[in-house]
């Protein structure tokens, strides 16, 4: 057994260590207080960024020195809490949450309503000196409805990209080609600051490289989204929260990093004066590195054998910029305008040696091919938001509008040398081919939301939304065969001119209420109408159709005590395919392995059920969740043999019904002062059935996520991360195992205004071999992609001004389409 596999097995075997129960340390739920007519309300905020602290523990105590709790509750999603039926008299409120300090405040209960004001919790280990707050959040926060990975606290992210950050987030996995999976599924939505990015939907693997890790504050993993989110049909939502905004004054950051795999520079500038706020950021960077791929395919019907091996390099660059303006029209009215520009491009070169042997020697072939794959993307977005609050607490109305433009290009050039095992001059190529294409896209979005509370324990959320989405694909192919043509000529039947319109109108409502102090319920539903229109200009054909989708959801949360709760959730989501899945262009860059999309795909519908237990205490937190996801009419990648011997093609089709049965443990602990650990195992049993293909695949897979950090003397911090997973059963074979680990050391300099970080990734193996298989009635295939991940990176950053964040603004979340990721330029 090789070293990497021994390490992967050892990591999986250590999983039980991370699941040590912490609930034994929790206090028992205090007895119910005597009935009265008084009430107390308040809100809990993070002292650093003034954002709500959802589910903070609030305990009502008698006057000092008696610390025996009278009663206790958990704050809601917005950090608000309410005690009712209290007896008048003096008391104290004590507010706490894992990863934060504790605040205690004396209050006087009256016969009516009392406002306790705002509690601003300092993060754990903070020191308060006048207006200065210094502290850090835990790397991972486990909350009842989501898991939050605070990327800014992980020093191993410094100088990296969003792909590096997502590798370390709980429940997520990123392979060597940059493809992301959430809870073992590739069907999820990625949002940036709670709003969509067409670039993310169209080409996730490449787009993630254009967001610097230094600009990411946190990653939120939401497994059962409520009705206010668009129809996410399978694993859930990944929300990347960027650093932005200030509460007052001016702040900013400049940074640079370089290593053997990538390099970048970035900067940000923010300020707020009076009612006006300004935020901005900019970055530019490059990535580079080798790639290797091997394929062995055996024909089961014709006794043929195809052997292919390739070596090459991935090179690319990106630029990314954001600009935000906020204006408080009045105490209860605000307006914000935000824009972003995201561009990337590069090439992936490879030298392919292909051998094909058949029972008929006349069909044998041998060739060497030099290929240069080209790609680029440009995404621009602008979003305007108007928000109005009211004298009644929690009542709010907002209107949002967004326009986004996304233009991608793709293409390839190759020279093929028949009966040669080495490359020759281009003039000696037996055949040359080139292709250029583009996938233009645009979106217009309008959305309005209204929140109306009824009393202290009931809330109704409603909203309307409309999306006008247009995309398509235009591509041409030219060829030159030595001895037949003297120059490239357009190849008939290989061009594509395809446009696709997708318009969605939606209405939703969610009613939340608390039948008792221990139980909170939420019921909601979303009704969506989808209208589709496709136009194939090369064949003068097309189609139009529309349909309605009712997407109910609900959850119930029961608090056993202040720190322990049980949550049951259900949701139905719809997943619509995006251009990567729809594009009918036939990519013949490798004529033995043809790829094209399917514009006739139908959407997926998924029913998700989740039962989770959460516990928080001074020693740490633990989340244990069991979930079931069932998807009918699932969109799957399908490989099949063609009429041409030795040639296969790959596309997508609604051919399967999938079920994922999952058990996940995730916890965090502080074994000693300055030492944090978090992580846990994830086990899945997967069932994939396709009557169309006559296939049923079942099997287990498992993964482990582990993160630890330790604060050393002299302002040093050391951090390490590891992720490992076993192979996954796929519809037509088996997916690859995964292993990724990194470690880093950060030193704070210049009175904590600067930092120098050194990161090392996969130091003990130059690459990880991602081995997968495909098995059909016609052929069996083994593939190996080598992800060269060993790297070292040195980063320096300097901060100036005050680092305090401003108000949280509402944002658009077009998370209703199934995205795709190009493997071009993947790392």
From TrEMBL:
**GO molecular-function term, one example from the UniProt record:** carbohydrate binding
| InterPro entries xrefs | Beta-barrel_TonB_sf, Carb-bd-like_fold, OMP_b-brl_3, Plug_dom, Plug_dom_sf
Report the main location listed first in the record.
membrane
Signal peptide stretch: 1-24
Which Pfam families does its entry note?
CarboxypepD_reg, OMP_b-brl_3, Plug
Superkingdom: Bacteria
Where is the TonB-dependent receptor plug domain positioned along the sequence?
152-236
Domain Outer membrane protein beta-barrel: from-to ranges: 389-798
Disordered: region residues: 803-827
Q: Does the keyword Protein biosynthesis apply?
A: no
Under which name does UniProt file this protein?
TonB-dependent receptor
What is the organism lineage in this UniProt record? Bacteria, Pseudomonadati, Bacteroidota, Cytophagia, Cytophagales
